[in-house]
Amino acid sequence: MLEVLAGIGRNRRTGGYRRDAWSPAELELREWFRQEADARGLDRHEDRNGNLWAWWGDPDRKPGVVTGSHLDSVREGGAFDGPLGVVSAFHAVDVLRARGFTPSRPLGIVSFSDEEGARFGMPCVGSRLLTGILPPERARGLTGDDGVTLAEVMRAQGRDPAALGRDRETLARVGVFVELHIEQGRALTAPVGVAAAIWPHGRWRFDFHGTADHAGTTALADRDDPTLKYAQAVLAARGVAEKLGVLATFGKVMIQPNNANAIPSLVSAWLDARGADEDAVRRLVAELSEGQEVVCESWTPEVTFPAALRDRVAAIAGHPAPILPTGAGHDAGILASAGIPAAMVFVRNPTGVSHSPAEFAEPGDCAAGVTALAAVLADLCGEAP
Ligand SMILES: [Zn+2]
Question: Between 269 and 325, whose confidence is greater?
Answer without folding.
Answer: 269
